[in-house]
Amino acid sequence: MHQTAILFVCLGNICRSPAAEGIMKHLTRQRYVDDQFFIDSAGVGSWHIGDLPDRRMRSHGNRHGYCFDSRARQIKHDDFIRFDYIFVMDGENYDDVIALANNDDERKKVLRLADYMTQHPHQSTIPDPYYGGDRDFELVIELLEDACDGLLNYLLRQ
Description:
This protein is α/β, with parallel strands linked by helices. The protein has a single domain (4-157), classed as Rossmann fold (3-Layer(aba) Sandwich), CATH 3.40.50. The chain is 42% helix and 13% strand. It is built from 6 helices and 4 strands, in the order E-H-E-H-H-E-H-H-E-H. It has helices spanning 16-30, 55-63, 79-82, 91-100, 104-108, 134-157, and strands spanning 4-10, 37-43, 85-88, 110-112. Helix 2 packs across helix 6 (134-157). The mean pLDDT is 96.
C-alpha cells in the first residue's frame, strides 16, 4: 500500500511545522489511518537543525494532548521526490520553497496549509508565533488543528 507522504514546512522548523506534524500524526492515529501516511516537517532555514521544537510550543502542545518531539531539519531538494505534498505556513515560506523546485511537477506539490481551514475563513496564513506570547502559540495550535483536520478530510476523500 502506498503511503501518502506529507511534509510541513515553516521558517525554522521549531514552531509551526513540528506542531503541524504532531497534530497530523495525532489525528491520523485517532482515526486509525496512520498507516496510510508518512508525516514529517522541515524548515526553510538551517538555524535550528537538530533542535527540539521551541519549548513554548512543546508546552502549549502538551496542554492539548500533543507530543511535539521531532528534531529540526532543513528542507532539501530530495524532499520534492520523497513527498507527495509539501505544505507551507505562509507566503514567505511558499516563495522560499517554490524557489527550490526544479519544475512544474515539483511546484505543484507546494501548497498553503491555511487553505484547508474550515473554521477560520478569514485567516490566510498560519502566523509565526516565535516573537509572540502565549496567545500567539495557542492561536497557532487552534489554526493547525483546523487546517490539519480539513486536510485529512480532503486526503481521505481522494
